Amino acid sequence: MYLKSLKITNFRKFGENNNTVEFVSSKSNSLKSDNINIATATTLIVGKNNSGKTTVTEALKKLLDEGGKFRSKDFNFIYLSRLLQEYCSDHFENFPSIEFEVKVGINFDSDCDLVTNFAPFMSIESVQSGNKESYFQVIMKYEIAEDVKFTEEAKSIIATHRGKPILFRKFLELIDNTDFKLNYYDFEGIPIGENKFRISDLLEIETINANKVINDKSLSDIFNKVINFRYKAENKKGIKSSVSSAIDEINENITKKVEESHTSSINKALSKIESRDRLEVNLSADLTFEKLMSDIIKYEYKEGEFHIPEGQFGLGYSNLMTIIGKLIEYIERYPKHECHSRINLICIEEPEAFMHSQMQELFIKHINDAVDYLLKDSEKEINSQLIITTHSPHILNSKIHSGKSFNNISYITIVDNLSNVVNLNDINVMEDKSATQKEPKEEVIKEKEEAKEKKLRDDLKFLKKHIKYKVSELFFSDAVIFVEGVTEETLLSYYIDQDEKLDKYYISVFNINGAHGLVYHSLIKLLKVPALIITDLDIDRNETEKTECAQISDLSGRKTTNETIIKYNSGSSDLETIKKHFEDENIYVAFQSEQIEGYYATSFEEAFILTNYGNDILNKVVSHIKPRIYAAIVGAEKNRNNLKQESYKLQIKLSADKSDFTNEILYEVVIAEDAESIPKPPKYISDGLVWLGQSIEKQMKGSVKQ
Predict the structure, then answer these.
(1) Could you give the number of structural domains in the chain?
(2) pLDDT at 37 over 50
(3) Three-class SS of residue 209?
(4) Are residues 237 and 381 in the same domain?
(5) Which end of the chain is more exposed for a tag (fewer CB within 10 A), N or C?
(6) Which structural domain, as residue segments, surrounds residue 301?
(7) pTM of the model
């Protein structure tokens, strides 16, 4: 049995859609092989700060705390505001509630003895399907106990405070003072009595706040608990008695020494004042196993030949040891003869605290190995699933790259003020990549299917590989920009730094080859992060035009070779009626769609030259890198206008020296004292940056903490 999914409705930032987190079965450990050495049985929940990662585990803990109570702050405020508007219109059909749907996967071969406990939640179809794998679901609603009373009090508040800013606050106070009850429902919505089932009968959660290295004795405290658990549970003959005998002997010896040197002397002094029959002290040793471990045993790390006190060890290693120690503590206190009727969730929150990047990657790679060993070493069969919440690109990168898969990753972001869950897998990060392209003719469909499948496999392989180098950052960025070359990457980073609005956000610039830009389309759409794709018009020239370096001033009858533009242009390569740019929800595609000084640029470099042909810095850099070409173009008169007529020829000559061109431009820009002397980005890029700034602002307004 394992937790298959958790649907959270109207709890904190979670709304009514895109609110289901999927989990991987603990059985996935069996999928490990020499080629996939990764935490396969670990569900990774990733996202930026305040997106809703911790809310997932908080929801589970709230449900399992039978004496706990949801407060108004636990409700989604957008949802409550909508309800209040209904009440102000005298519509009281709906009442405040928080809903959770737990879906549990079962294996009839191994879980048949447990299924009877949860029969009320199972459908006949799932039992009679004949499948070894199935599931059942439990629906829990935190609902008002007395609708009539709540309605009367809500009407009174509205009548008193209608139209006043204080109304919503009074509504929250009403919810805090209203009696709620957690009700259970089966898959058909039929109530199930609490006496028949409680969620704590099904789930147990252990949360490890991995960054709690509080003081120099944090590790001692953890491992003392572990040893105490092991000592109390020890069942080997002779071990407990030998330890107890040793402690008794120590107490006896110490007491004897104290009596000889102190007890007798003190009592003699007291007898001078009061009779020994009335007042006498007895000093004795009181060493116990607990005191021995907490106050006498010293914890040290071994580093080479030296033993290092725990207070002197690095925070990264201390954090790692804290996690391992808490895992051991959890396993040790778990009943050895537990009937295993519950699902045990172990959640490690943000383990990356204090760890350097390599340690983070090794941690996620091998955490299942550590848990497996601890379980085997304890000889306990705990039905556990591991959940890790993180905002570390290194942990995400290791999960994807080493695991060779996007599976078992739940990405949470904010869309329209609500937490938006995206359960990633290898299928949805690649699907619908060619949806807007024209359908092939029937006679060639079969031939193209095999080629398409191979292309998808290759694209997925490339995407996973490319993630390793940088792209995992896009999961945690406020926005991303995809470019095709080093010139755009370097200069865009500079322009972003100089923009007072954009400089305040975390914007990642990714340099990808134009031929591979489409590989990221589905992933970007899933993540909902604002994405600016800067690509090139890539006008298809004939051989004569290439030889003569002909300028293009008219797009009539022209076509593009750029696959990204073709995709967003409804599968057409025609440029004659091309749009100024393309927008697809959170994606903006910018390219050289308009004339610059009378010509259509075919690359960023050409557009940059046409935009800044009269700029001193541009002319200085070009004349230094390509002195002969530059001199031939501007002539003896040094006519910079000639750069416009020869922009395509110049960008071809610069193609082998793009890095030098970019670095020298950047150097001159950085040392420039006059802001007016700095070359300007081409208009299509400026327009794209404006769109990006507006999209980020819209996104940020939706990220304000509830």
Answers:
(1) 3
(2) no
(3) strand
(4) no
(5) C
(6) 218-313
(7) 0.76
